[in-house]
Amino acid sequence: MISDVAAWQAFEQRDRSFDGRVIGAVTSTGIYCKPSCPARRPRRENVEFFTDAAAALAAGYRPCLRCKPDEVGRDREAVARAVELIEQAEEPPGLAALAATVGYAPHHFQRLFTRDIGVSPAAYARALRARRAERGLQESESVTKAIYGAGYAAPSRFYADAKERLGMAPSAWRDGGRGHVIRFVIVDSDLGRLLIAATDKGICRLTFGEDESTLRRRFLNADIRADDGTIAPWVEAALSAIRTPSQAAEVPLDVRGTAFQEAVWRELRKIPLGQTRSYADIAAAVGVPGAVRAVGTANGSNPVPVLVPCHRVIRSDGSLGGYGGGLDNKKKLLEAEGVAMRRTEAQPGLPGID
Question: What is the pLDDT of residues 39-75, one digit of tens each?
Fold first, then answer.
């Protein structure tokens, strides 16, 4: 559930990310709208909120003819169905076929899918295929077998994708990063001891309480080196993100996950400084409103907390939830950004490790 305060803020800002997640109904006109509706905003006291269009309709309101709120639910269902089709297909379906299956024109559906998931259907399919290939490379003795098993029609296509996404040769993924250099430092910060590690592309690991041995187990055959100053500017930028988040500079990252994890991490990076979102908010933003627990798991898999700000995700009741670096550190990070939070211990069975 979205609070009335958050719902009204979404309407004031015409926030499209809340379309399909809340409906505003105007008592003086009898009309209900989605948050991004371009119509003039009514007085706050004349608005009540519903979870969906069906609830507003049942309460006696009628849909706005400008923003057509009833279509939003259908759009999200179509996107969710398309995700299922992509994940079940042996080969990535083309946009025209995918759009036809869910009943939309190709260009319109491309826009809807990108709005909800954060990437196009083709990019989502490529990410999914690449993740399958990475797992195959780690488990199979044959690079070629892993490539075809992931759904690539030819090795050349995989190598082209790998150059952009993986940052190292396919065989190196299967062989624990052999032939690649990862530099690291262990530093004191306002949150305690941190391990920060980076490839030549960007920071690949920022963790609380880990040490060199943990990093070596994660990248068994990479060339793990104590940093000689090469990554010092990135380290300083990461520490600045903790000390003075309002002044922190962008830090290059070299991180990868499943297509779903990457979609969640992209949404985390969209949360403005000084604001929070609930697990349910993030699940809805990536187009899978029911995947609240999966969002918690994706938060827990975040390899670069602070830089990908999973600390800005809290529970729907306003409590902190959990945090891999400890609730005290989560509270410190939020307070440094101007968010006052009460400490509430994570409860078993709920998304907590983020």
Answer: 888 999 999 999 888 889 999 999 998 888 877 667 7
**CATH value of 181-243 in 3.90.1170.40, 1.10.10.10, 3.10.290.10, 3.30.160.70:** 3.30.160.70
Q: Comparing 72-167 with 259-336, is the CATH topology the same?
A: yes
Least confident of 6-10, 115-119, 149-153, 322-326: 149-153
Comparing 297 with 152, the larger pLDDT belongs to 297
The CATH number corresponding to 72-167 among 3.40.720.10, 3.20.20.120, 2.30.29.30, 1.10.10.60 equals: 1.10.10.60
Strand partners, 49: 24
In the annotation, is 64 catalytic?
Answer: no
The C-alpha atoms of residue 293 and residue 303 are separated, in whole angstroms, by: 18
Q: Tell me what pLDDT residue 163 has.
A: 43
Is pLDDT at 166 greater than 80 in this prediction? no
Q: Which of 110, 115, 80 is nearest to 97 (CA)?
A: 110
Q: What's the fold here for domain 259-336? A: Arc Repressor Mutant, subunit A (1.10.10)
10 Å Cβ neighbour count for 238? 24
Q: What is the largest CA-CA distance in the chain?
A: 68
On whether the pTM is more than 0.90, the answer is no
Place of tokens 């991004």: 36
Candidate list 37, 64, 204, 310, residue with the active-site label: 310
Q: Which of these is catalytic: 33, 64, 67, 204?
A: 33
Q: What is the pLDDT of residue 46?
A: 94
Active site residue 310: yes
CA dist 202 and 194 (Å) reads 16
**More confident call, 273 vs 145:** 273
The CATH architecture of the domain made up of 4-68 is 3-Layer(aba) Sandwich (3.40)
